[in-house]
Amino acid sequence: MIFTYRYCMMLEEGSFRGRRADFAFMFIFGAVFMIICGTFVHMVFLGQAFTIMLVYVWSRRNPYVRMNFFGVLSFNAPYLPWVLLLFSLLLGNNAIVDFMGIACGHFYFFLEDVFPLQQNGFRVLQTPHLLKWLLDPVPIEPVDIDERPGGFNWGEQPPRPE
């Protein structure tokens, strides 16, 4: 739960700042991807996979952040999902859930951040306009100086009569 909260917050305040609809679309994409994969591997609870997906996307978008695991292991952020996978294996948990989260996060990261930058690349994942209309804030247009209220010329000399 702490991982979900922490990495959700860091993604929302970092790479998704001011883009609520894109953030929600990442959740929807992850949920649909994991539900489809979950039916093939007969998994019902996919919360751990969703958390690993969030960690993966955050870690790939912040590659130079240094991480410290229990004060023993120091590494860069892109290795965090793999360290969590190894830790999960050491605890005797099923690795399929973590692999599903890593696969979903990698698929999202590739389609959103890597493929559009390739030659002849384009954005595959387009946030629906309805989601943008519902969640994104309306941009505030700055008021032109001539249209601002007030306009008092206090301290200026009055025009001289000719």
Question: What do these coordinates show?
Answer:
It contains six helices and two strands. It is mainly alpha-helical. It has one domain (2-135). A two-stranded antiparallel ribbon has the order 1-2. α2 (20-41) packs across α5 (95-114) and α4 (80-90) runs antiparallel to α5. The mean pLDDT is 84.
Summarize the structure in short.
The chain has 162 residues and is mainly alpha-helical.
Q: What is the residue-mean pLDDT, rounded to a whole number?
A: 84
Find the structural class using helix and strand composition: mainly alpha
The helix content is 40-55%
Sheet with most strands: strand arrangement: 1-2
> Which segments are poorly predicted (pLDDT under 50) over 5 or more consecutive residues?
none
Biggest pleated sheet: 2 strands, antiparallel
For the secondary structure, the number of strands is: 2
Encode the helix/strand succession as letters: HHHEEHHH
Number of helices: 6
Strand content: under 5%
Rg over CA atoms? 24 Å
Could you say how many structural domains there are in total? 1
What does the overall shape look like? elongated
GO biological process, one term: response to stress
Protein name: Derlin
Function: May be involved in the degradation of misfolded endoplasmic reticulum (ER) luminal proteins.
Family: Belongs to the derlin family.
SSE topology sketch:
Elements: H1 2-13, H2 20-41, H3 47-61, E1 66-69, E2 73-76, H4 80-90, H5 95-114, H6 129-135
Antiparallel strand pairs: 1-2
Helix pairs in contact: 1-3, 2-5, 2-6, 3-5, 4-5
Keywords summarizing the entry:
about 160 residues, mainly alpha, two-stranded antiparallel ribbon, about 5% strand, endoplasmic reticulum
